[in-house]
Amino acid sequence: MALARPMRVLRLAVRLLWAPRRDLAVRGPDEPLPVVRIPRALQRRQEQQQSGRSSPKLVLARPGPLLISARRPELNQPARLTLGGWERAPLASRGWKNRRSRRDYFSIERAQHEAPALRNPSEGSFAALGLEPRVLHALQEAAPEVVRPTTVQSRTIPPLLRGRHILCAAETGSGKTLGYLLPLLQRLLGRPSLDSHSIPAPRGLVLVPSRELAEQVRAVAQPLGVFLGLHVRELEGGRGMSRIRLQLSRQPSADVLVATPGALWKALKGQLITLRQLSYLVLDEADTLLDESFLELVDYILEKSHIAEDPADLKDPFNPKAQLVLVGATFPEGVSQLLSKVASPDSLTTITSSKLHCIMPHVRQTFMRLKGAEKVTELVQILKQHDRAYRSSPSGTVLVFCNSSSTVNWLGYILDDHKIQHLRLQGQMPASMRAGIFQCFQEGSRDILLCTDIASRGLDSTHVELVVNYDFPLTLQDYIHRAGRVGRVGSEVPGTVISFVTHPWDVNLVQKIELAARRRRSLPGLGSSVREPLTQQI
User: Fold this and answer.
1) Within 13 Å, how many C-alpha atoms sit on residue 13's CB side?
2) CB–CB of 322/308 below 8 Å?
3) How many helices (H) and strands (E) are present in the chain, helices listed first?
4) Tens of pLDDT along 83-119?
5) What is the pLDDT of residues 313-331, one digit of tens each?
6) Which has the closest alpha carbon to 481: 258, 210, 107, 114?
7) Alpha carbons 505 and 512: distance in angstroms, whole number
8) How far apart are CA 348 and CA 516, in angstroms?
9) Residue 34: CA atoms inside 13 Å, Cβ hemisphere, count?
10) What span, in angstroms and rounded, lies between the C-alpha atoms of 360 and 108?
11) Within 10 Å of residue 380's Cβ, how many Cβ atoms?
């Protein structure tokens, strides 16, 4: 029995040794040889190696600051290196559509510490721009922290004082609001108020896309108006005609009106207000106001406004004509066709920033490839780390962006379960509730705000330190506005943006952002929309 097993193994080995091999069997002279097929991917790889054209060489990081830092060090890019348009970039996000890339990440590092608007500050003063002493005194009293004009303000204020129509396209947080408010107030100082109408007739109008932005612009303009003897009022919608009628009855003598399109449209339709005395019209966040959602309302408002054809039309105080100002941080492709409906291209002075539509160089931006089920855990960990740091030394606050109101509510319940105090802001909330939420956040009652894109445009957030894109934005335009909530002029804390990348369409946008950062170029699809069809006169 002991020898049975070894004997069976020996017989099996002899049988295999003498068995004929199929591939070595004797074939006839006319019988073709078998064909061995090589996989195409392996064949291409062998051809590249033989011809010396292997895969693109990876950029190796040398000692020194980095522009791109990745989880895989061989994909780092030094800050002193800029890829040319003909070079193939070794993107860290190239394979992110594959599920194996989960937990991968890379960062666009901070290349400078101050905002681009303050990188080369104007050597002059507000007085050198042509502002009157009364306006300078009001600015000093209302905003003593504003000492010198930013680059955008120094280029915007002089042509506005000369009566030119302006299209100002500059990055977020560059001081555009003061850039158009100061000339507006100075123009109204030299104009008499014609009290011939029984209904409110503002002389200056600032049109904004949201109630939150209207409140913010009013908060900036009202202190200036107090020192100049001008009344600044706000007209917000979302509360019905009775509410609009009540607001206008309380402010019949408003010199400057800050309004949303829906509320002003209702007031004009109901003949509760007239724009016959209008001498200054501002479209703030003009790219949003000229979007399909607002375009019909804005067209009606412009029809009721008497826009001047040239600066000479602005000199008659008894026949007011409106000077037009268009302001925005992004002007994507297609907006130029809409602008032609507002004013002729030759009548607009276009002022653009050198960093328009570019990745902000003073804000660190991190992209994390995650599964959808991993985002909640990652967010809770980030917020708890921020909460511990905030308690030890209070500094900046956090904005968490979602793509829908339902996600904001659902995520809020989860943070409640984790005992993380926060505020929520989304468009489906009643107007009475939305009115005070962002103000409470700015005052510091809570340091975390869950929100939709309603908080991404125009709102001043100099105290925000961290932006988390829980849902990656749907467009590059939305990404610029969200990231622009940090690193603004006047911010005392360094800005950081963290984005969760989940879907294949998210990866497409991330790759465009990474490629633009590596080549130091503007984001695709946004670069030339305000330069080609409009004349640039600075």
Assistant:
1) 6
2) yes
3) 17, 16
4) 776 777 789 999 999 988 999 999 999 887 766 655 5
5) 787 777 888 899 988 877 7
6) 210
7) 11
8) 29
9) 8
10) 10
11) 16
